Amino acid sequence: MIVPAPDPVLAAAAAAALPDTDGGPAALLAADVARGIARLFARNDIWCLGEVPMRNGRRADLMGIDRRGHVVIVEIKVARGDLLGDAKWPDYLDFCDRFFWGVPPGLDRAPLDGATYLPQTCGVIVADGYDAEILRPAALEPLAAVRRKAEVERLARIAMRRHTALIDPLCLAAGELA
């Protein structure tokens, strides 16, 4: 009997989750927010992967493709301090057609309306472990066709590798040797 490997998306998101610093109820884990967003996206024919390494050395919390072939990235923040301290997020904009912030319901979203967070470009999704809602749509900032093709192909290869590892973990180890 093959036992599937633990889901790397949920494990990494849970490990990266920070406690709520707003004084309110405990923040949802990043994994819960990711799951809610993935469900929203699936209903809208957007298919995504979590914890996607990018060519610039960053790692997207969620990265997916919509039915038109547009690349979507979601940066998840579950604590105000993490949101305010994140200076790396603009590095994602060169790798997607749409960019969203994903946050839990109780998080103070006021900073996302400030000019620093490009509200005219970046969307906002509020999510819990069950569902999500887009509060502000993300503007379409089209990638160059060559860049989009490269990102879609890279996402496809990552998805196939993860799928293969779930079916046969030993196959993944053999692939690392090649």
What does this structure look like?
This protein has about 180 residues and is an alpha/beta fold. The protein has one domain (about 10-175). Helices cover about 35% and strands about 20% of the residues. It is built from five helices and six strands. The protein has helices spanning about 10-15, 30-45, 80-85, 145-165, 170-175, and strands at about 45-55, 60-65, 70-75, 100-105, 125, 130-135. Strands 1-2-3-4-5-6 form a six-stranded mixed sheet, sandwiched between helices. Strand 2 and strand 3 (about 70-75) form a beta hairpin. Helix 1 (about 10-15) crosses helix 2 and helix 4 (about 145-165) crosses helix 5. The protein is globular, with a radius of gyration of 16 Å. It starts with 7 loop residues before the first helix and ends with a helix. The model is unreliable at about 1-25 (pLDDT under 50).
How are the SSEs placed, and which strands pair?
Elements: H1 8-16, H2 30-43, E1 47-53, E2 59-65, E3 71-76, H3 80-85, E4 98-103, E5 123-127, E6 132-136, H4 145-167, H5 169-177
Parallel strand pairs: 3-4, 4-5
Antiparallel strand pairs: 1-2, 2-3, 5-6
Helix pairs in contact: 1-2, 4-5
